[in-house]
Known about the structure:
Layout: E1 2-9, E2 15-20, E3 28-34, E4 37-44, H1 53-67, E5 72-74, E6 80-81, H2 84-93, H3 96-106, E7 109-118, H4 121-131, H5 133-144, H6 150-177, E8 185-188, E9 196-205, H7 209-222, E10 227-235
Antiparallel strand pairs: 1-4, 1-5, 1-6, 2-3, 3-4, 7-9, 7-10, 8-9
Helix pairs in contact: 4-6, 5-6
Amino acid sequence: MGQYIYAVADTGDERTLELGGIAEAGGNVSIICHRDIGAVVSPSPVTDYAVNRKNTMAHQAVMETVMATAPILPVKFGTVGEGADLIREKLLADRYDELKSHLAYVADKVELGLKVLWTDPAQAYREIVAEDRQIQKLRDRLNAQKGGARKDQIRLGEMVAGALARKREALDTRIGSFFDGLWVEHKKNPPMGDRMITHSVFLVARDKEGDFDEAVNRLGESTDGQMKIKYVGPVPPNHFIELVVRW
């Protein structure tokens, strides 16, 4: 048995938590320390963990529980050390200064996630056609020809895709303006599917979290029901810091 590693925490309080770990037959989560930092671990076979919903949720749940009591640095999913002594030496002791610097940076910050989607994707396409005369003309010509030439069908698809990308970019910029001055770092992920407009994560100072919540509410009020907002957080800063451990 080894030790599965979830995170490094800003604590020197070595203890066992009333919290089960990721392994099926593993024991409780504990924190093993070097000086004033600790690795959040639980017993685990030295194995490769499948990236599935069950495992990733177990990993995330442990991090969120510990995050409630101390700043943490997420460790890459699936990291297993062969024993507590090795983890203390190779992770906590050898990288002590680096870890302390990262912990100081995230100490007063949280990650917040924002996804914005069209409520009715067909409405976006209708707006594109209404706003672009060239698309209207080509569509009408193809309809009159009961389909038209294959090359013209491809061209129409490309024109619509380009217009959709431009519309999404303009809306994404407008959405981002609601949060100006409220984040320390911001990352954009590629949109997933035609419905998604924005897929962003923000590193936000805790004293700005309430202002960020209010900005999300203002954004929602401005959409007239045409957009759906998915707002997640606070969660560990996975998108901004993820420790990779090499033995």
